[in-house]
């Protein structure tokens, strides 16, 4: 139930921009409840505020943020620029790219679950079930069969016959494992051209007898120049976004 409430919080947070003008004011106070419904509403607000603290973890577990931020970090390390771009820029870019990649999923959640729930056409339980389906479809489209089978074997659960038989507790770690694997594969491919530049520069310095000069100092400008000439950021971002297709 907590997991479902977390997903409801996620789908509630995404379309706030469209409802900004109609948001009500919220006041917090302590008073005597005159109706059981007031107690229930207060408990729901408390649960939502509690789940709000784990919203970053939900973003990490169920979206493409993990893959994106790891690949961007690999780009910075491969070039040898330890603090450029800074961590704030890398995380911010990864966050907005995640929203861009997940926009179709969030829109589907908004249309199928959030709007009907706000219009009181479906119950909270139905809204949660409708919100889970697009997220599950996205994770199933990205998870590897071997990773999913590994988690099923570890959990010692019966062999699932279809996707509906796989629980979220099995799907989420399998999805994260697949994301880590794919991110490191892309990171390896990013390191290869920069490694070649480092090796060429180191060989030239060795042949010139300049063994006391660190090759990284000489190769860094050439790696930056190479990255700029090939329009590296566009290639990296384009490959990242297309990898979710």
What attributes does this structure have?
single chain, 245 residues, mainly alpha, 10 helices, elongated
What topology emerges from the helices and strands here?
Blueprint: H1 2-13, H2 36-52, H3 55-62, H4 65-79, H5 87-118, H6 124-142, H7 145-155, H8 168-207, H9 215-229, H10 232-242
Helix pairs in contact: 1-2, 1-6, 4-5, 4-8, 5-6, 6-8, 7-8, 8-9
Characterization of this structure:
This protein has helices at residues 2-13, 36-52, 55-62, 65-79, 87-118, 124-142, 145-155, 168-207, 215-229, 232-242. It is mainly alpha-helical and 245 residues long. The longest helix has 40 residues, at 168-207. Mean pLDDT is 79; it is low at 1-23.
What fraction strand? under 5%
Give a quick account of the main beta sheet: strands, pairing sense, barrel closure: none
Total strands: 0
Mean pLDDT: 79
- Share in helix: over 70%
Structural class: mainly alpha
- How far apart the termini lie comes to 31 Å
Rounded Rg: 24 Å
**What general form does the structure show?**
elongated
Low-confidence stretches: 1-23
In DSSP terms (H or I, runs of 4 or more residues), the helix count works out at: 10
Q: Give the SSE order as H and E letters.
A: HHHHHHHHHH
Q: Gist?
A:
The protein has 245 residues and is mainly α. The chain is built from ten helices and no strands.
